[in-house]
Amino acid sequence: MSAALKEKLAAKIPPMRETVKQLIAEHGERSISEVSVAQAYGGMRGVKSMVTETSALDPDEGIRFRGYSIPEVQRALPRPPGAEQVLPEGLFYLLLTGEIPTLEEVNEITATWRANEQLPEFVKTTLEGMPTDTHPMTQFSMGILALQRESIFARAYREGTPKAELWERCSTTRCCCSAACRCSPHMSTAAATRMVCTLRRIVPRSTGRPTWRTCWASSTRSSAS
Fold first, then answer.
1. Number of structural domains in the chain
2. CB 3.0–4.6 Å: which of 79, 136, 183, 210 could bond 83 by disulfide?
3. Can you give the residue range of the structural domain that contains 157?
4. Which pTM does this prediction carry?
């Protein structure tokens, strides 16, 4: 994680903890949803059961990231000189902090990802062993799940790190995982690419399914440019 982003989160997390603590103390017994039998059988559709700060999906407006619609995000986030599209690292920053980053802050995240975009050999082996007609979302999911072994957060949790300190390990793991996504998802077809476009700007030119080796080489060349 970049130093600036770490400092930003370190400043934001304690006040948020106090806000949540106060909210639970004052309204902890308040009901926020009723569940019908039809909803239970229908996959809990329409049931309010979780709290999220990062995004909300409105049936009419579509998805909002930290309160911003997609067009608003496209207008607000920074982009390189002469580029038409915003940088996905900017959306990453927005989701984590709730603030619109500067181009300098976005570039720091890019540098952090590029320093950690190695794909472990066992992950390559896992992906290589999958049938060539495996659905791209399954490929992507398997690649991410295989990275769990490298999780800094999981290691810290097993070692008994105090809960109040786990956010830093979690954020570092998130950055490392995002860095690995610069390589692993590009074996996928366009469907997977659309899903991970908020993590990486590389888009396979072929509509077929290239191997992870082809995508690894493509990612490495792009990172070097």
1. 1
2. 79
3. 121-224
4. 0.69
Residue 115: inside a domain: no
Question: In sequence order, which residues have a C-beta less than 8 Å from that of residue 212 and are 6 or more positions away?
Answer: 119, 124, 127, 128, 183, 184, 186, 187
Residue 19 lies in a domain: no
In Å, what is the CA distance from 22 to each residue of 122, 144, 181? Answer: 45, 35, 37
Q: State the DSSP string of 176-221.
A: HHHHHHTTGGGGS-HHHHHHHTTT-----S-SS---HHHHHHHHHH
| 125: in domain | yes
pLDDT tens string for the chain (225 positions)? Answer: 778 888 898 899 899 999 999 999 999 999 888 889 998 898 887 788 888 888 888 777 788 999 999 899 999 999 888 888 888 889 989 998 999 999 999 999 888 888 877 778 888 888 888 888 888 888 888 888 888 888 888 888 888 988 888 888 887 777 777 766 665 443 433 333 333 433 333 333 333 444 444 444 444 334 444
